[in-house]
# Entry
Amino acid sequence: MRAVVYKGPFEVAVEQVEDPRIQHPNDVIVRVTSTAICGSDLHMYEGRTAAEPGIVFGHENLGVIEETGDGVTSLSSGDRVVMPFNVACGFCRNCTAGLTGFCLTVNPGFAGGAYGYVAMGPYVGGQAEYVRVPSADFNCLKLPEGTEKETDFVLLADIFPTGYHGNELADVRPGESVAVYGGGPVGLMAAYSAMLRGASKVFVVDRVAERLQKAEEIGAVPINFTEGSAVDQIREQTGGEGTDKGIDAVGYQAQAHGEDREEPATVLNQLVETVRPTGALGVPGLYVPRDPGGPDDQAKQGMLVVAVGRLFEKGLRMGTGQCNVKRYNRQLRDLIIEGRATPSFVVSHELPLDQASTAYEKFDKRIEGYTKVVLHPHA
Ligand SMILES: NC(=O)c1ccc[n+]([C@@H]2O[C@H](COP(=O)([O-])OP(=O)(O)OC[C@H]3O[C@@H](n4cnc5c(N)ncnc54)[C@H](O)[C@@H]3O)[C@@H](O)[C@H]2O)c1
Ligand SMILES: [Zn+2]
Ligand SMILES: [Zn+2]
# Structure
């Protein structure tokens, strides 16, 4: 079959790879009809990780079941399903507590598994014609038959639940104000989810015009951090107080404000200043234990200079980590089915798999409006 293969820094290619096959009675093989490129894929694409050439990318996968193992009980060939990016067992201590992003058995030595991701286990990615889904009764979410709302449903694999998770980590409640740093797919989904949860005022901070425009279209207040301090701009619009809650949807690739260089702790520190005393921060943006490309020796060891003193002084709470997709995906699916959520506004491009190389390049440069790309392997 054809798949998106990592060749080395800033290079992917669509190549022939081995077809996946059933390896365990609870596996299924899914014929992938939609698979999205993620900001997390860019970390590997840019050569910032230990990802070796040859890895097949793709953890945001939707398709139709082609083949089921003998032990599969709740799924049949022909079912349309979307898979959480987390590969999880369903029976370990963390899975039974709903913390499927931290499954203890699918990737021993590291909490949590995922498809097509460095250090996240042996699960081949789904930017391909087919993908193997382990523990399929647990790791598939059934969708209505047909092809309707495909671009909404594919976002249930990661970014819609992840944006929602940012709100859960920050404990966003009705009537509260929320500052979201990052207007990428995760940030836009975090802002959208904040509104679904009844936030009164939502700010989205970025510098990419198309992304700020999408934020405005969904009713958020766009804040361009190249036009002056984001903290000051948000404070001015919250009576000088700052917001109740804040979400980091940028992670360690944060751009320094006012200068053209990376400054990994920038967003964390800006959030500490943006959120009012006793508020809370949700951090779905990714931070890593090691960043070989980090700007200094400490950053290379994953150690960042964060204003912990201010965090404590203000009595701020902070939640971090991978999204436990399964915790929210059924409910978010039903909002889509009932027409109460339409997350696909974030999708800027739908392309055949063969155009993956260009799509990665443009999404990575954040040019030509590339905000979220969905690939269709059988188009
Ligand atoms: N926790 C999870 O489970 C999970 C899941 C998916 C993605 N992620 C992470 O979420 C983050 C965002 O993902 P994405 O797909 O939206 O990526 P993205 O790279 O497309 O978006 C990041 C956005 O942040 C903006 N940005 C950069 N520096 C900034 C700053 N200082 N202030 C404000 N905005 C700034 C960029 O212009 C960009 O638009 C990444 O770190 C990704 O790895 C986490
Ligand atoms: Zn993703
Ligand atoms: Zn588990």
